[in-house]
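Let's do one together. I've listed all components of the complex below, 880 residues spread over two lines.
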Amino acid sequence: MLALQNLTLFPETVVPLGVGRPRSMSAVEAALATPEKLLGCITVRPDRADDTDAKEDDLYQVGTLVMIKRMERSGDAMRIVVQGTERIRVLEWKQQDPHLRASVQIMPEASTVDAEQVEAMKRNVQQMIQEALALLPNVPTEVRIAVLGSADPVRLAYFLGSVLNLGVEEEQKMLEAETADELLRLAHANLARELEIMQLRSKIASEAQTEMDKAQRDYVLRQQMRAIQKELGEDESGEAAEAQLLRERLEKADLPDEVRTEADRELKRLERLPPAAPDYHVIRTYIDFILELPWRKSSEDKLDLNEARRILDEDHYGLEDVKERILEFLAVIKLRPDTKSPILLFVGPPGVGKTSLGRSIARALGRKFERMSLGGVRDEAELRGHRRTYIGAMPGRIIQSIRRAEVNNPVMMLDEVDKLGADYRGDPAAALLEILDPQQNNSFRDHYLDLPFDLSKIFFIATANQLGPIPPPLRDRMEIIRLAGYSDREKLEIAKRYLVPRQITENGLTAGQFKISDAALELIATRYTREAGVRQMERNIGSVARKVALRIAQGEAEHVDVDENSVREYLGPPQFYPEQARKELPAGVATGMAWTEMGGEVLFIEATLLPGGRGLTITGQLGEVMQESARAAQSYLWSHAAEFGIDPEIFQGYGVHLHVPAGAIPKDGPSAGVTITSALASLYTGRRVRPDTAMTGEITLSGLVFPIGGVKEKVLAAYRAGIRRILLPTRNEADVDDIPEDVRKDLQLIFVSTISEVIEAALEVLVANPPPPPLPPDATRAGRTPEAEPLTVKGQ
Amino acid sequence: MVKIDLAGICSDELEIEIRDSMLRITGCRRDTHCRDGFIYQQMEITYSRFEKTIQFPAPIEGASLKRDYSDGFLIINLHRGEDA
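Okay, and this is what the predicted structure of the assembly comes out as:
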């Protein structure tokens, strides 16, 4: 008997075996010494398999009787070829040494119980074998025929058992199967499992194959494409030519040393990369960008001051002080060409010509003009760029504008700096600090470029509607030039010189076809628009011009002269009724002036006594500052009651209601202090405020008048309203120069520095409406009680 | 004629059987030299029982059969019968 490890032999199968152990070799030799050459083979239980010789109970009971067909020796081992013949069952172990010996019983062939079922399973198994063979391309045809042609289901099952490599336990089960039914069932189950594994394996293999094929196909296509391009003469071996081209441009370019070193380094990296590498295009774009920047290219400045003045005058009417400031800067540049360019900030309402003034400066200087709007910019990277590590990184707007300008000294307009945003991504205003600092901006580093660029030659002009939102450090870096609104007279001039001719051209008319009278323009300026600038006015002139164009195009007229009446006809009824000076003011009402983003306005402050009331009621959407100045005014008058001839009892017996129309518009600021004081003083004394007088100024509790802003706008507004007598703080005297001469000569300006002076100048001397006598405190309460009743009834 | 390489066979034990179109030859090759204590260095010859089946294209039943065993070859002569 031969003990087998990890292997079960089946009848009817031929298997080569290696025999190495002395006991096994002894068994083989003993078998060969018989005429039949028969050997019993029995398998060691898998859980007992080890290096020692197997004992009786380590072995299965059922094995196979085999015939040794061949034997040869190689060194100390033997190789034998055996053919299974019968199944055997061990009856009794006779001997352990020198080899195993046992008496066995030959087992009958597996019997068939249900022939039909066996046949069905056989066919099924054959079907599966066919499938399995399809997955194994290298099986010889003879084997296929042998397997599929086999008519005996039992032989087929044994063959499968030996081929499938199932493991000892499964194999032994098949060997021990008593009936063909069970044998085939086992064979079927095992084959099915193996087939599944094979299919899975083949699927994995074919997927890997597909992937490989795709890569290979791409490669081939790419090669073909290259060949085609070469045929078309489109690239002389592609990337090499491109790099060569860049290198030539690099050599010709006038670059600072540091930039050249960096560009060289990037170019070397580019040459090493295949063009399909993702970095390739990033680097190429970067080098391209470096080459396109005007590192040392400047435009020549035109420094003829007379010419500059002529250009400025030609483009803009009025704005004398602004033009003067600009000419001063030009003069400095002329005398000292290496001087740092100034950084200007134009502040003013919309439509007054801030942007076009920047354009004129560029024209006067002969420089390129680049404009960028900063309104709503929230991201610092927008100005300073993204680092090149990011996908889709781009340089910031500053550097991009310079590239567009193609020179390093353009006039760069930063529009709407007061409308910069800021969020968690950073504060663009902080980036502007560096850009606008003449000490630092000669080596500005854009994140994308990562090389220092000299911004100091750029003439920066920022514009804003309001100074307030601009951070103080930023404000500090710029020369602030205020552009106040235009007076109606200036608007008329601007309309005649610029707006009308422009609208004539834009609407396809000629100067002969469209004439508009001064009175008509004035009407448009005062009754159809309310603005500091001229934008709406231009729109209105434009719509008049369009209507005229329509008439001419329809052949109704050869040419049209527009006067006041036809303006009403074309534009409809007037849109605005300016707050006119009231002919007569009751006691407790005073005329004030306010500054708005659209220019100035006149407003009235109304106060009234409330018998039996308490304290100060304030209405009209007034801000905290304005409310506080109202309280200060009342306190001042109370504490100085005797001086102004006011009965102190009145402060206790009556409350005061202060109202500022129009009630829907929020108002704030300290400059109404003087007006509120006048209104209250008038209320308490019964002396009316002079209706021809408007006033402005901040007050203190000690009775001083402080200066305020926006003098020009306010005075112009009062002038428009027909007021000719104006009270201003003494310390605003210097601002009067801003007021156009033609307006100023009509005005009577009174400068005041204390509240006493204000009251003296503003109030009429006569007591027109004497204030009611103060009520005794008890009477106050008695008077109030009955009034409370109807209110509760109303509530129900 | 069928010629088969069959050396070392006792010709008395050869059985030849014809069924339909099949010719079946069975027999046994015995190792006549072996005895107790005999050890092989190498064994190239397959002993023991064997069986060979030859399939013909047409039925051969009824054909006359003549066999001859000499020099290790078995030669079988088949003659077409009257009714084949």
